[in-house]
Specification:
- The complex is a heterodimer of chains A (803) and B (339).
- Chain A is an alpha+beta fold.
- Chain A has six domains: 72 residues, 2-Layer Sandwich (Phenylalanyl-tRNA Synthetase, Chain B, domain 1), CATH 3.30.56; 117 residues, Nucleic acid-binding proteins (OB fold (Dihydrolipoamide Acetyltransferase, E2P)); 205 residues, Phenylalanyl-trna Synthetase, Chain B, domain 3 (Phenylalanyl-tRNA Synthetase, Chain B, domain 3, 3-Layer(bba) Sandwich); 64 residues, Phenylalanyl-tRNA Synthetase, Chain B, domain 1 (2-Layer Sandwich), CATH 3.30.56; 201 residues, Bira Bifunctional Protein, Domain 2 (BirA Bifunctional Protein, domain 2, 2-Layer Sandwich); 89 residues, 2-Layer Sandwich (Alpha-Beta Plaits), CATH 3.30.70.380.
- Chain A is built from 21 helices and 39 strands.
- A seven-stranded mixed sheet of chain A has the order 27-30-31-35-34-33-32. In chain A, strands 3, 4, 5, 6, 7 and 10 form a six-stranded antiparallel sheet that branches. Chain A has a five-stranded mixed sheet with strand order 12-15-18-19-20.
- Chain B is of the alpha+beta class.
- Chain B has two domains: 89 residues; 228 residues, Bira Bifunctional Protein, Domain 2 (BirA Bifunctional Protein, domain 2, 2-Layer Sandwich).
- The radius of gyration of chain B is 42 Å and the shape is rod-shaped.
- The chains are: A alpha+beta (803), B alpha+beta (339).
Chain lengths: 803, 339
């Protein structure tokens, strides 16, 4: 909301500079975003008239002009402007003038021809092109031809630029402050000066209620969406431009002047915060206004020439045949004020904010009017506003008010009463204010306190409870005076839970191992999954949570796996020519299992650690070691590593699951070559996914000391030749199973292949260490176990033992 | 006899003196003091002496032996030192040669800020809470005093999965979940990702991180909130950081405030980071709205509390001097490894 200091001054004597005023208001809750001092930087720019335009002898794109700048002074100015013609009235920066941005204009020569000044564009005057919609951005500002009699006059005066305008950020709970009146009230209390209230006597303009004025009648058929509808009629209207003072004030708030009647509706909205509308009475069929819900597919062309399609949730103002306005949003072209309009109907109504907001969004039209309605306006203000409009009509001689008003007011605004709880407010704020101090603050804000009951004024519908009263007290006691105390309450232990601790220690380990943590979006697309070889009925696709209103087609699903984003980040780094890249991502995946969402439940969210690496030094086994370290660190006792050949994202020959029983807690391996190809990475990529939630579930809870054994170990080596496809894991399983708990460690120490062994054969050698905690093992015991191991290896794996 | 001993002494001393290495010393030791050494033989031949001569010669031999031993030992030490010196010289290395260290990884700047904040609040007795990111609209909005017609619920701002399920647009729903399941006192912070329908640019991202704080107990006041945030700001942003409260509005707190901190880059004098204001907007906060307490099963007559929430990216950017938010999500290791 923009407000000029000149206008605010009508409500409270402003005795400070703009910057200080802005600071004070910011600290009482009306945050000033910017201070615009239009025209401050402009000097010696005047109104001029182009008398002639002649070609430049030495240039195709320049012209030489003669400009009358008043007082008999004619200047020769050379310009490259294309949008000018003889007779145009334009701003002229004379010799020695100043423009915003520290620019000074001096007489000089352009291609050898004297030029004694410059014609100015909207931008060169430091003005916002949006405030001058009839001007073009890259051309000279063309002023109204009415200004011909003002030649030589200072442009600041002509354009009303000697204004300081504050731009406020008004919070949605304070629609009353979307008006000069409301802001004026805040200014008065903030500066601790009287609120002057120039509209104190507006109620005297009130007239009696009538059913029918000049044949006009009003009905509300949707009282749930329209709380009040007041109409008054003005006749003998002469449509004309508004007086300069009104246009200037509208302009200071960023509203363009149009004609006296339309300007009055805008002026009242800015002044009092109540949006208004004006219709030509002749365009209202049957002179009967109905406030009703729109019909499905009902159409209306709004004032901006756009056809809008409506539905039954929208409210319209209608005559007997057609909608003439979308309630609270914008009027229809069919009832627009025209140059020959003679009788005007003013509307001052209050609609349900939620409905106006939804309608405005649905038709794509957020207006000054709808943005006020959507916050919830006071029906009590509607009558004041229409009376003010009629007052202005008479004041500027725009027409003649007809006696009587139509006031349909089905839902009268209720008075709110809140007990004044002094002690509770002090406890809530941490202050020590007396009751009288609180009452003093509240009364300044027009909040009545009668017998310890707080009664907010009609325009403060945001005050509903003691907490709201406390905020009002605090605002004017001073947020900056609030003390800083520490909580005086029961001690709490605080700290991280088990999962958070595991995640933190794992992350620390990975960083120390040379991995960099990345941060990625939780989104992906079907395309991303396809790039990772996930299509069709793969659960990574079918269980993905779909976003109804995605930002773009790249972000349509929630992640079911972090591998696509990991691949993308590796690909980015590869593109940047970063070598030896090792990354990890600790984030969530979301799975819609068993149609959870369709049944109104939430999807499953899991915390997944995803590792991605490429580089000379990395291979499956370095990754495996890293993941084993992670699991050890987390306190995972025993794991079963199984080959995984069905996970589409991994190389089928180089992928493993880490299982606890049948529960897969991690998957590691090389990315399927299809992925590296799709992401344009020319080297092998290693990836791992570790489920942190599952790790937490299985992590050893307590640590317990086991005595260090005093008895010696018995060591045996075993070497065998077997078929290439047999995994060493199978050998280890047999060794484990057959050593009857005597085994302390089985260590693979050699593996080789040679022509001598034959094709598809390998030699594998283990060093076994046997030991028990309570005695020295005898050779016989160990020999017995070894015999069993050997025979089982021969039997199950067809191993040939080497002596 | 005496002359003979003197003669041996003289010869021995000469040989020791002339020894060029430890081996020559050892030879001298064997020659004079060994089992068959010249001095040893004299001691052995003492039986032939008169009883009067014996003590005199005996003590003379011992005297000479001690002297020779001392000399030999001295010489040995000398040669040992020479040996060590030689070795040290040979083993000289260039300590400025590059090391063979493993390169370290890095913690993402967003995580670093979150970790710093966690540590500060854990020190003040807070727990770390967590909740779903795909959230029921009732937790994201309704229970937080944001009814169905509220502008914050627009599809322009919030991602919807169904009409009743959203991507949480704030970490505040965790507040509601914790309040429903915990009897006060409650002291939590909740860091996490949140989602808003903003296109990606230098200062916006559809995914960003927030940290939410909540305290519920008897007699919790707004001054406690200010005190807590003042302490937090000092620890997180530097001992000299000041906190300023400005009135603001949020549906789930009343009274509400925006908290600014004195600029931690210029100390409040005004600079590019604080746009010359001397203050940086840090977070939104306030006293938990009585409706929110009621919605979550806590009696507002008995308990009060405060809540605050802030964006992690903004703080990370200001603190580390990062000028484009997109850098945080591009994950270029040349960027990541700077942290």
């Amino acid at each position: 909301m923009k407000a000029s200091i000149e206008w605010l001054n009508e409500y409270a004597d402003i005795n400070t500079g703009a910057k200080q005023l802005a600071d004070i208001l910011t600290m009482t809750g009306s945050k000033v975003e910017t201070i615009e001092s239009q025209g401050n930087d402009i000097e010696n720019v005047v109104v001029g008239k182009i008398l002639e335009i002649k070609p430049h002898v030495d240039s195709d794109h320049l012209v030489v002009t003669k400009v009358d700048v008043g007082g008999g002074e004619i200047l020769q100015i050379v310009t490259g402007a294309k949008n000018i013609k003889e007779g145009d009235i334009i701003p002229i920066a004379k010799d020695g003038s100043k423009l915003p941005g520290g620019i000074e204009i001096r007489t000089g020569k352009l291609r050898g021809v004297d030029s004694c000044g410059m014609m100015c564009s909207v931008g060169e005057l430091g003005l916002d092109i949006n405030s001058y919609p009839d001007q073009i951005e890259n051309g000279i500002m063309i002023l109204s031809s009415n200004l011909e009699k003002e030649l030589g006059k200072d442009i600041k005066e002509v354009l009303g630029l000697n204004e300081t305008v504050l731009d406020f950020e008004i919070t949605p709970n304070r629609p009353d402050c979307l008006s000069i009146e409301g802001l004026g009230r805040e200014v008065a209390v903030s500066l601790d000066v009287p609120f002057k209230d120039p509209r104190k006597n507006i109620d005297e303009m009130n007239v009696e209620n009538k059913e029918n004025i000049e044949g006009l009648t009003v009905d509300i058929t949707a009282p749930d969406l329209c709380y009040r509808y007041v109409a008054r009629v003005v006749k003998d209207v002469k449509i004309a431009p508004s007086p300069a003072w009104m246009a200037k004030r509208l302009n200071s708030c960023g509203v363009r002047a149009i004609n006296n009647i339309v300007d009055i509706t805008n002026y009242v909205m800015l002044e009092m915060g109540q949006p208004m509308h004006a219709f030509d009475i002749n365009s209202i069929e049957g002179k009967h206004i109905t406030v009703r819900r729109a019909k499905a597919q009902e159409k209306i062309i709004t004032l901006d020439d756009q056809e809008r399609t409506l539905n039954e949730n929208m409210l319209v103002i209608s005559d007997d045949k057609k909608a003439v306005a979308i309630a609270g949003v914008m009027g229809g072209q069919n009832s627009e004020i025209e140059e020959n309009t003679q009788t005007v109907v003013f509307e001052s109504a209050v609609f349900y904010g939620g409905s106006v907001r939804k309608t405005a969004k649905a038709v794509g039209l957020r207006t000054e009017s709808s943005s006020r309605y959507e916050k919830g306006l006071s029906p009590e203000n509607a009558l004041r506003a229409i009376n003010r409009a009629v007052e202005l009509v008479e004041q500027i001689g725009a027409g003649k008010a007809v006696e009587g008003k139509i006031d349909v007011y089905p839902a009268k605004q209720k008075e709110v009463k809140i007990p004044l709880q002094v002690e509770r407010i002090n406890l809530l704020l941490g202050t020590n204010l007396s009751k009288q101090e609180m009452i003093n603050i509240l009364e300044k804000l027009d909040i009545k306190v009668e017998n310890d009951i707080v009664i907010p004024p009609y325009f403060r519908q945001d005050i509903e409870s003691t907490a709201d009263v406390a905020e009002e007290v605090l605002r004017f006691y001073g947020y900056d005076k609030l003390g800083t105390t520490l909580i005086n309450a029961e001690t709490t232990l605080g700290g991280k839970n088990k999962e958070q601790k595991i995640a933190d220690s794992v992350s620390e380990f990975l960083v120390n191992s040379g991995l960099s943590e990345i941060c990625t979006y939780g989104f992906l697309s079907e395309k991303d999954l396809a790039k990772c070889n996930i299509t069709g009925d793969n659960p990574y696709l079918t269980q993905a949570v779909k976003i109804q209103n995605p930002l773009s087609e790249d972000y349509t699903l929630m992640k079911t796996t972090s591998i696509p984003s990991m691949m993308q980040m590796l690909a980015n780094n590869n593109n940047y020519k970063n070598q030896e890249v090792k990354l990890f991502d600790l984030s969530r995946v979301y799975q819609n299992k068993n149609n959870a969402i369709e049944n109104g439940n939430l999807p499953e969210e899991s915390n997944i650690l995803t590792i991605g690496m490429y580089g000379q030094k990395e291979n499956f086994y370095t990754l495996k070691g890293l993941v084993e370290n992670v699991l050890e660190l987390a306190g995972i006792p025993k794991l079963d590593v199984r080959k995984e050949q069905n996970n589409k994202m991994y190389h089928p020959g180089r992928c493993a699951n880490f299982n606890i029983g049948n529960d897969v807690i991690a998957t590691i391996g090389e990315a399927n070559p299809l992925l590296t190809k799709n992401y344009d990475i020319t080297q092998r990529v290693l990836i791992a996914e570790i489920n942190i939630d599952k790790i937490t579930k299985y992590a050893r809870k307590t640590k317990k000391y086991a005595p260090i054994t005093k008895f010696p170990a018995v060591e045996r080596d075993i070497s065998m030749v077997l078929n290439e496809e047999i995994e060493v894991g199978e050998i280890e399983k047999i060794i484990q199973k057959k050593s009857k708990k005597l085994l302390e460690e089985a260590k693979l120490f050699d593996i080789y292949r040679s022509d001598k062994l034959g094709e598809n054969k390998k030699s594998v050698a283990y060093s076994l260490k046997f030991r028990v905690p309570d005695r020295t093992l005898t050779d016989e015991e160990v020999n017995g176990v070894m015999k069993e191991i050997v025979s089982e290896l021969e039997k199950t794996l067809g191993a040939e033992l080497r002596k | 006899m005496k002359e003979q001993i003197e003669q041996i002494k003289k010869q021995a001393l000469e040989q020791i003196q002339n020894a060029q290495d430890a081996k020559a010393l050892d030879e001298a030791r064997i020659k004079y003091l060994g089992k068959k050494g010249e001095l040893t033989l004299i001691l052995r031949g003492m039986g032939a002496l008169t009883p009067e001569e014996r003590p005199v010669i005996g003590s003379l031999v011992n005297e000479v032996r001690d002297e020779l031993e001392a000399k030999i030992e001295e010489g040995e030490k000398h040669f040992a030192n020479l040996e060590i010196e030689k070795k040290l010289k040979e083993e000289n290395i260039d300590v400025t040669m590059p090391s063979t260290k493993n390169s370290l990884g890095s913690v993402h700047p967003i995580t670093q800020i979150i970790n710093d904040v966690k540590e500060i609040f854990i020190g003040m007795g807070y727990e770390i809470a967590d909740g779903p990111e795909v959230e029921l609209a009732t937790y994201n909005f309704d229970k937080l005093n944001t009814p169905p017609d509220h502008p914050a619920r627009d599809v322009q701002d919030t991602f919807y999965i169904t009409d009743d399920i959203v991507l949480r647009s704030q970490t505040s729903p965790v507040q509601a979940r914790v309040m429903e399941n915990t009897k006060p006192p409650i002291k939590i912070i909740c860091p996490g990702a949140v989602y808003r329908s903003d296109s990606v640019d230098a200062t916006h991202s559809p995914v960003f991180h927030q940290i939410e704080g909540l305290v519920i107990d008897k007699n919790i006041s707004m001054a406690d909130l200010k005190g807590t945030l003042a302490m937090f700001a000092k620890k997180c942003l530097g001992e000299k950081t000041l906190v300023r409260f400005r009135p603001h509005h949020f549906p789930f707190t009343e009274p509400s405030a925006e908290a600014d901190v004195s600029c931690f880059v210029c100390g409040g004098k005004g600079c590019r980071v604080c746009k010359g204001e001397g203050w940086i907007e840090l977070l939104g906060c306030g006293m938990v709205h009585p409706n929110v307490l009621k919605n979550c099963g806590i009696d507002p007559e008995e308990y009060s509390g405060f809540a605050f929430g802030f964006g992690v990216e903004r703080i990370a950017m200001a603190k580390f001097g990062i000028d484009d938010m997109r850098l945080l999500y591009e994950n270029d290791v040349r960027f990541l490894k700077q942290f």
